[in-house]
Structure formats: C-alpha cells, structure tokens
Design brief:
It is built from three helices and five strands. The protein is α+β, with helices and mostly antiparallel strands.
C-alpha cells in the first residue's frame, strides 16, 4: 500500500447532523446498528431542535457508507438535511446512544 493510500484510509472523526423527521422513528437505534455493522465507534443523540447528532470515528470508506445511510435513515424517517463536519480524532470504546 502506498503512503497516499494509507493516508486516505486513516481513521478520522466526523460529526453528522441529520435534520427532518428523524426523532421518534428509531433513527438512533437504526444508526447504532448500522455503525456497529460497519465497525464504527461513536455516539448518536437527539438534539433539542429536532435533529440527530452523530459523532463517528472510523476509516474513510466505512464513514462514507454511514453518511450515505444517514441521508435516508430508517424507512420511517424523512431526512431533509445531512451535514457533515470534520472533527478532531476521538476514540470511543463502542457506538452508543446518548440520552
């Protein structure tokens, strides 16, 4: 693997804010299941403005898969916006739902 390829797949932490009809539709539980299946660690939490905030640490290819999933969410969700921000790297033991 070249240095460029290694750099591209380095671990990173992203913050993903998902807005729309994303609370009360099992978004957090479904997100945790998706993240665990992808080997991503982090947190997911409802926000007071009705959005869901995800902090996710993993390698680029699987983080991209999580972002694509977040654009739609579970079948009962209606995602209107999915914003992604880079954050300082954070280590988590697992992927947790925060209350």
């Amino acid at each position: 693997m070249s240095n460029v390829e290694e750099f591209i797949i380095m671990r990173q932490t992203l913050v993903i804010k998902v807005a729309g009809k994303v609370q009360g539709v099992f978004f957090r539980q479904s997100c945790r299941e998706k993240a665990e299946a992808l080997g991503i660690t982090g947190t997911v939490q409802n926000q007071s403005d009705g959005s869901v905030l995800i902090t996710a640490t993993g390698k680029e290819p699987v983080l991209s898969e999580l972002i694509e999933w977040c654009k739609f969410g579970p079948p009962t969700a209606q995602v209107e916006e999915c914003a992604v921000f880079h954050a300082p790297i954070r280590d988590f033991e697992r992927f947790e739902i925060l209350r």
